[in-house]
Design a protein that fits this description.
This protein is of the alpha/beta class. The chain is built from ten helices and twelve strands. The longest helix is centred in the middle third of the chain and has 15 residues.
């Protein structure tokens, strides 16, 4: 979700998960160190950088004075997890000291950033208070991941996700419906469901592909090299993804503004009820979100 704010030092558009809407948003880094995914244009105008510590100090001072009703912190930008340990250790220590009422600290991470840290590093971050990781999987199909330039294959995504879980983090993975286009839609859905089932995260957030003006994938659609599934095909893809997703005890959500059919389900117990909901939607018995209501 994109937004602009005042008060804290937020440079340009910032992104945070829907569940962090009421969090203290600390922009520790600018942009994304990978910044190659074809479906994203959020950081094309930003060169990746770690912001000066003096800015962090001002933001923490502001938060300590004006953000006492907010008990969560979300550290931005796109993959702030990639920061070296010395920066994380300083920041997490200061959050604990200056914002003692904060109960949860979260951030985005990708497989590359996780792989750069040792198991000891991961445990240390968890001990210092970093607890919630939003982890982009996007697809479980190797060909799709390569085409969208994700920078990781399914094996690497699985390995690094398991390391996060083993270190004690709460893990929320993101997948994208429609990312394979019309031709590979159902294969992408099946492979993605199988991959996230192996990861067995605490949360899965399913988004539907939007076409930002500056994203390379938008040019692919415009030039006809990739055909987007229509509304019903995207819904069918969601059904296949959900049917192939098994969690030991987790939440599956498709309540992001990009989706046509909002879903919030606890798995495994809500599996049959949600499958029935999707079938009814495919049969036209349930109204879908209007196009004008969809957004990043």
């Amino acid at each position: 979700m994109l937004f602009e704010t005042e008060g804290l030092d937020h440079q340009g558009y910032c992104i945070r998960p829907p569940s962090e809407a009421y969090s203290i948003l600390l922009q520790a880094t600018l942009g994304c160190s990978h910044n190659k995914c074809t479906f994203c244009d959020s950081f094309k105008t930003k060169r990746f950088a770690i912001k000066d510590r003096s800015i962090w100090e001002k933001d923490l001072a502001f938060a300590s004075r004006y953000c006492r009703r907010q008990n969560r912190v979300f550290v931005m930008d796109g993959d702030a997890f990639v920061m070296p340990m010395r920066h994380w250790e300083w920041l997490l220590t200061e959050i604990a000291e200056q914002l003692p009422w904060v109960e949860r600290v979260g951030t985005y991470a990708n497989a590359k950033g996780v792989a750069l840290k040792s198991d000891q590093d991961l445990r240390r971050l968890r001990e210092l208070g970093l607890s919630m990781i939003y982890y982009g999987v996007e697809s479980g199909q190797p060909e799709v991941l390569q085409r969208v330039r994700k920078g990781a294959d399914p094996e690497k995504l699985l390995t690094q996700a398991r390391r996060l879980k083993d270190a004690g983090f709460t893990l929320s993975v993101t997948v994208i419906i429609g990312l394979a286009g019309r031709e590979g839609s159902l294969e992408h859905a099946k492979a993605t469901g199988e991959l996230v089932s192996k990861i067995d995260p605490d949360y899965i957030g399913a988004l539907t592909l939007m076409l930002p003006p500056g994203a390379p994938i938008t040019r692919e659609v415009r030039e006809g090299t990739l055909t987007m599934p229509d509304q019903m095909e995207l819904l069918a893809e969601l059904g296949v993804l959900f049917s192939h997703t098994t969690l030991s005890n987790g939440m599956f959500t498709a309540n992001h503004a990009s989706n046509y059919l909002p879903i919030r389900a606890r798995l495994p117990q809500d599996k049959e009820a949600v499958m029935a909901l999707i079938r009814n939607a495919l049969e036209g018995k349930i109204a879908l979100r209007h196009e004008w209501m969809r957004a990043l």
